[in-house]
Automatic annotation (TrEMBL), chain A:
Keyword Lipid metabolism attached: no
Residue ranges of the region described as Disordered: 120-228
One GO CC term on file: RNA polymerase III complex
Source species of the chain: Bos mutus grunniens (Wild yak)
Record key words, sorted: Nucleus
Xref: PANTHER family: DNA-DIRECTED RNA POLYMERASE III (PTHR15367), DNA-DIRECTED RNA POLYMERASE III SUBUNIT RPC7 (PTHR15367:SF3)
Protein name: DNA-directed RNA polymerase III subunit
From TrEMBL, chain B:
Swiss-Prot/TrEMBL GO biological process terms: DNA-templated transcription
Gene Ontology molecular function terms on file: single-stranded DNA binding
Name assigned to this protein: DNA-directed RNA polymerase III subunit RPC3
One cellular component term from this protein's GO annotations in UniProt: RNA polymerase III complex
Record domain DNA-directed RNA polymerase III subunit RPC3 winged-helix: where: 350-407
Family in the record: Belongs to the eukaryotic RPC3/POLR3C RNA polymerase subunit family.
Record-annotated RNA polymerase III Rpc82 C -terminal domain positions: 146-344
Length: 228, 411
């Protein structure tokens, strides 16, 4: 039950003065819709409160120019990791020569966790490792180490094992030797590995036949085969 | 981190390092500390790419790693450090104002590369400066080295944590990750290097500013074969020191605005004297005697001792309390109240924001509430001397924009 309002007279159920209106004063208009979201206008005597203008000056201009330069420079740094583009169905010959030169960056592996070093599982692996082994003769005079190395080379030769399995099996022992050796080969092998990835998948070892430096240049001159 | 901050980090990482690094970085910011495999699995990125991304992030001091039990290495993003990338132009400009072009380029190289050895920095900067010089002139390594040393002496550049030298690598399996050691006393110790040489100008045939494609390039430069004398000693920009400089600048310009040029120079002198003796988080600087300040004033300023004392007294009596008197020995011991000064500056900024958005009467109410901490509706009207209806209107506006909040108390 709503209860008896004061005997026919309209009376508010709370003290109207607390809200800020004195008796008999005109109540403000009923608000029918929410206030506009934007612009946030606060009109007092026809002055909108506009934001204060930005600071400008020589130093601000210089800092702005620095920022724009920085944005351009960082894209050319080796730290900018490009997203690998999808394989195209037709490999354009010109693409090979359009690669913009970027300096290679090799981190100081001594400062990083060993698990971050890239692992190679390409066919080139055993070949390069063998070459390295002959070079690093003195350090592998320990027969136990040699056995371990051979074991590990066999595993690499399979090439079927997944990255994760490799890491778990070899563990930390092998890493200590590979850690320093791999530093210089990593960059070179990774680059070559990428090239191999892009070549067709066939049974031929890509490094077996090396294109000479004159391969592309001379092909136009010796068109003997193409005469009909 | 708020959603807006995470979005900002994402944009910064993407701009500086590309999408892959951004994906890994944002993932770490969102989820906290994680090991390598989990990152690869959760982001759906290949292990190789995650490794590369982490190497880049660690190089730039944006991610740190920690070895947990059972040899698991976890990576953690330094969210606040990512946001500092916004300030790179400001840091570089500060170095320019203090140490001119050489200093500017040194700091720029350090920020772009995260960390570098001194020899690498000197060589790179000398080459860059030589490019801009007239034909036939080159920049000497010694000059660049000198500027580098000055930057280190004033703590703008500091050493990175070191890899501890271990001789016992044969006894047991080496740890999965090196534990980097921060050496407090060596932080600003410059190794004795004799860097002799001059900057090299790049030959014009190699340089291609238009960005045309270049097919063949030598894979490795010959310099990599030479032994590096300061191998393993890396340097980074000390961002906290730059922040301290910004703080000092803000205080000095506040004093200049409020009082006059001479007072601001005195305050600047006091701050400069406390630069390396006072820790950056301290509430006030070490006490400085009036005599010391007098001796340290810049050469051009020839005000007499009495005038200096008068200025100091004025500063100490100012209600803003930027400068305080802590004793009477040595002609009067004075300190700069850093926390109070920063508090006043922050308050002034807030009041200015309210004034520009809502008007000066709202600003008056806001100042009142800020000063008295809690006020009731009626008290606001009385103290601010604003009619009740308008006062309510203004309070509600500020409430709706979250400048003021309500607190319900029981009597």
């Amino acid at each position: 039950m709503a209860g008896n309002k004061g005997r026919g007279r309209a009376a508010y159920t709370f003290n109207i003065e607390a809200v800020g209106f004195s008796r008999g004063e005109k109540l403000p208009d009923v608000v029918l819709k929410p206030p506009p979201l934007f612009p946030c206008s606060l009109k007092t005597k026809d002055t909108d409160y506009k934001p204060v203008p930005l600071k400008t000056g020589e130093s601000e201009d210089y800092v702005l120019a620095l920022k724009q330069e920085l944005r351009e420079t960082v894209k050319r740094m080796p730290y900018f990791v490009e997203t690998p583009e999808e394989k195209q169905d037709i490999e354009r010959y010109s693409k090979r020569y359009m690669k913009v030169y970027k300096e290679e960056w090799i981190p100081d592996w001594r400062r990083l966790p060993r698990e971050l070093m890239p692992r190679k599982k390409c066919i080139k692996g055993p070949k390069s490792k063998k070459a390295k082994d002959t070079g690093k003769g003195p350090s592998l005079t320990n027969p136990a180490d040699v056995l371990k190395k051979i074991e590990e080379l066999e595993k690499k030769g399979d090439g079927e094992k997944s990255d994760e399995e490799n890491e778990e099996k070899e563990g930390s022992k092998e890493k200590s030797k590979e850690g320093d050796d791999d530093e210089e080969d990593d960059a070179a092998e990774q680059e070559e590995y990428d090239e191999e990835e892009q070549e067709e998948e066939n049974d031929y070892i890509n490094s077996y036949f090396e294109d000479g430096d004159d391969f592309g240049v001379d092909s136009d001159d010796n068109m003997d085969e193409a005469t009909y | 981190m708020t959603q807006a901050e995470i979005k900002l980090c994402s944009l910064l990482l993407q701009e500086h390092f590309g999408e892959i690094v951004e994906k890994i970085g944002v993932h770490l910011i969102r989820t906290g500390s994680q090991p390598l495999r989990v990152i690869a699995h959760d982001t759906g990125t290949s292990l190789d790419q995650v490794k590369k991304a982490l190497c880049v992030l660690i190089q730039h001091n944006l991610v740190i790693y920690q070895v947990h039990k059972r040899g698991v290495v976890e990576y953690e993003a330094q969210c606040n450090r990512v946001l500092r990338m916004l300030r790179y132009p400001r840091y570089i400009y500060t170095a320019k104002t203090l140490y001119s072009d050489t200093g500017e380029l040194i700091v720029e190289e350090l920020l772009l590369n995260g960390k570098m050895t001194m020899s690498a920095v000197v060589k790179k900067v000398a080459d860059r400066l030589t490019e801009t010089m007239e034909d036939g002139k080159t920049m000497d390594y010694a000059e660049v080295s000198n500027t580098f040393v000055r930057l280190v002496d004033t703590h703008f550049v500091q050493r990175c944590p070191l890899v501890p030298a271990t001789e016992n690598s044969d006894t047991g399996p080496p740890p999965p990750a090196p534990t980097l050691v921060v050496s407090e006393k060596d932080m600003y110790l410059v190794p004795k290097l004799s860097l002799i040489g001059k900057g090299k100008r790049r030959r014009s045939s190699d340089e291609d500013a238009t960005g045309e494609p270049k097919a063949k390039r030598p894979k490795q430069t010959t310099d990599n074969k030479e032994p590096i004398p300061d191998d393993g000693i890396y340097w980074q920009a000390n961002l906290d020191r730059f922040h301290q400089h910004f703080r000092d600048q803000a205080i000095v310009s506040a004093v200049a605005n409020r009082m006059d040029q001479t007072s601001s120079e005195i305050v600047r002198t006091m701050l400069r004297m406390s630069e390396v003796t006072t820790p950056s988080g301290a509430p006030f600087t070490q006490p400085l005697s009036s005599n010391e300040i007098f001796r340290s004033l810049p050469v051009g300023y020839n005000i007499s001792k009495q005038v200096l004392d008068q200025y100091l007294t004025l500063l100490a009596d100012d209600p803003l309390e930027f400068v305080g008197k802590s004793g009477d020995s040595g002609g009067g011991m004075y300190v700069i109240n850093l926390h109070k000064a920063l508090g006043s500056l922050a308050t002034a900024t807030l009041e200015s924001v309210v004034q520009e958005r809502f008007g000066s009467r709202c600003a008056r109410i806001f100042r009142l509430v800020l000063q008295k901490k809690h006020l009731e509706q009626k008290q606001v009207e009385d103290f601010a001397m604003i009619p009740a209806k308008e006062a309510k209107d203004m309070l509600y506006k500020m409430l709706s924009e979250n400048f003021i909040s309500l607190q319900v108390g029981c009597l």
